[in-house]
Amino acid sequence: MVNAIKGLMISCDVPMAQFIINMNAALPQSQKFIIHVLDSTHLFVRSDVAGMIRSAIAEFREQNTYEKPS
Amino acid sequence: MDTNAQLWYIIREYIGNSEERGLDSADLVSFLLELSFHSTGKAYNINTLSGIQRTIIRDLADLGLVKLQQGRKESWFIPTKLATNLSISLSDTSSRKQEYAVVETNFRMYAYSSSKLHCEILRLFARVEYQLPNLIVGAITKESLYKAFQNGITAEQIISFLQQNAHPRVAERIPTVPENVTDQIRLWESDLNRVECIPAHFFEEFPSREVFEAACDHA
Q1: Residue A54: CB partners within 8 Å, gap ≥ 6?
Q2: Dihedral, B205, B208, B212, B213 alpha carbons, nearest 10
Q3: So what's the pLDDT on residue B90?
Q4: What is the ipTM for the molecules in this complex?
């Protein structure tokens, strides 16, 4: 019988996919959100984690910025 | 967009919304056209208008197109220059754009202007470093662009603004803004949207390949 699972498909580039997989691996078992890794640029995750992924990426991006004190 | 085009954009949205609020759009449009024939700065009695037109006047006063004045027995409205300019066609270039900005390939920006408005506009997407009596020096940085993108400004808007306000000295250069600057602005914009999320369903354990193909054809 066919199983249907509702979720979110994420389409991104290879480094971002690796970043998300890494983040998933760091979480305890009950909070893991990746349902399936489709290929190096597509992932299938639980629907409620979209905001968390976006904020984690924004935080990662902000670590690499430097603001000159005016 | 020059002032007139912006004004018309707002008015179009207002007319579009008026139907939902129960205001007849034909009345609205005819009143707007009437308004554009009034002389600027002359006070007109509100009692000459119908009830619907009074509602319209109140909305236009909020937008800044007319000024309301309360007398002892009567109230007046005074059309401003914006209102009388409504009937001027959009292609009127009486407000000539002043050209003042130079962008260099090292992401530095120089604006030969003493206007505070220009300084504030540039501050939206660039880091203004020095402000001299006739020159504004700034740099387009990743952080300043991120702030602009978070405020909803698109890279295309920034690039077209820089191109339209280019100093006559660089205006002959093709392209006006250096390509590495435009490319980098677009790259930084797409950097904010690296991940795309699409709600989807996942189907697994198909009994055989034929069932899977049939499902695909059905979709």
Answers
A1: B195
A2: 170
A3: 44
A4: 0.70
Q: Do B201 and A4 touch (CB under 8 A)?
A: yes
Nearest to A5 among B143, B146, B201 (CB): B201
Give Cβ neighbours of residue B15 (< 8 Å, ≥ 6 apart). Answer: B25, B28, B29
Question: What is the set of domains in chain B, with CATH numbers?
Answer: 3-85 (1.10.10), 100-193 (no CATH)
Nearest to B60 by CA among B42, B97, B86, B26: B86
Closest CB to B204 among A3, A10, A50 = A3
CA distance B16 to B34: 19
Across the interface, do B198 and A4 touch by the CB < 8 Å criterion?
no
Percentage of chain A beyond pLDDT 90 is 0
pLDDT over 60 at B94, yes or no: no
Domains, chain A, ranges and CATH? 6-62 (3.30.70.1220)
Q: Measured between CA atoms, how close is B212 to chain A, in angstroms?
A: 10
Which among B127, B143, B195 has CB closest to A16?
B195
For an interface test with B, give the residue of A10, A21, A38 to mutate (most B CBs within 10 A).
Answer: A10
* Residues B197-216: tens digit of each pLDDT: 888 877 777 777 777 777 77
* Best of B127, B129, B202 to mutate (most A CBs within 10 Å, chain A): B202
What integer pLDDT is reported at residue B92 of this predicted model?
A: 46
Please state whether B98 falls in left (phi above 0), alpha (psi between -120 and 50) or beta.
beta
**What confidence score (pLDDT) does residue B1 get?**
56
Q: How confident is the model at residue B88 (pLDDT cuts 50, 70, 90)?
A: low
